[in-house]
Amino acid sequence: MGWKRTENVLAAALPRPFRVKWINLRARCAEEGVEREKMEFTLPIRVRWDVDFRGRSGRVKRIARKIAEASPLFVELHLSGARGLSELSGILAELQKAQPRVSVHLGLFPGSAEAARNGYPVDFVWDVGPAAGFLPKLPQGAAAISFVPDADNLDELPEVVAEFADSGLSALHLPNVNAVRSLAARGLVPVPEIGRLRAAAEAVAALKVSLGGKRLVAHDFFLWKSLSGAFPGATGDRLEFSGCQAGTALAYVDWEGGVYPCDSLPIRLGPLDESSLEEIWASPARGRIVEAVRAAPGACDGCGEYLGCHGGCRGMAYLSAGTFDAADPACPEEGRTRR
Ligand code: SF4
0.90 cut: is pTM over it? Predict the structure, then answer.
């Protein structure tokens, strides 16, 4: 058993108030990049799992068991249809053995609102899909939504933010594009380019809406940077960015149990069917990716932004150029200054 897993198991045995404090402290260390280069992860802290895809899923309970064995602190379940939904209670029964904090990310498909009425001890995040006009479709009591600002949906971002600002919702998540799912669905990844990201952020700023007391979580550094100007901290709004955690604090599991460093970095590390998550995390392939993700890309050499962005999304860089030495394609290169 690796020491990180031992730590996770010990944390699980702590009384809840201490456990929550410990989880928050460790997650903050990971997310704020404390000793980022030195932190070792023999197991991921967060596991993101696409439970189903177009009505398909692997041996769900077995995958859930393998994830629970790794004692992650956070598990994100992504359900996209009736197949995933029908497995939810079985998955939660397996996961609760490790007592992670579970969030369930659901699309607004027929029957999905039913899950929120079952009293599961999870946080629900509702994926509002490609367009605004989502409020009437959300179940009663919904608190958090997500919207993926990809090349197809980006123009909808101002409307989504305006609708969110006007609602009783407390959190809007703007995650990065899921490359593994996009590649499986259509053979390409709809990554938005910086010009369009900036235009969308400017359109959001022009709305002059207030997000007082609400939380806007933009995962992409460059989008976060653009939006942070529109929602300054003085208003009490919170925008967060965490550096690339692919293959370190974060693991992604696809609907067949394939393990990846992140859903935005489609390099398959191994199948949970044949190995444990700990074995996959100990593999040389994972070690090489971590080394590459942590290294400063050659393309960022001399850039004054690097200390803030850490090279941005390493998955998007790899996808666009086929190498980790490239810059994130969303990087506004003309803004570079010498360090
Ligand atoms: S590759 Fe890194 S920066 Fe990109 S989405 Fe994954 S964790 Fe985030």
Answer: no
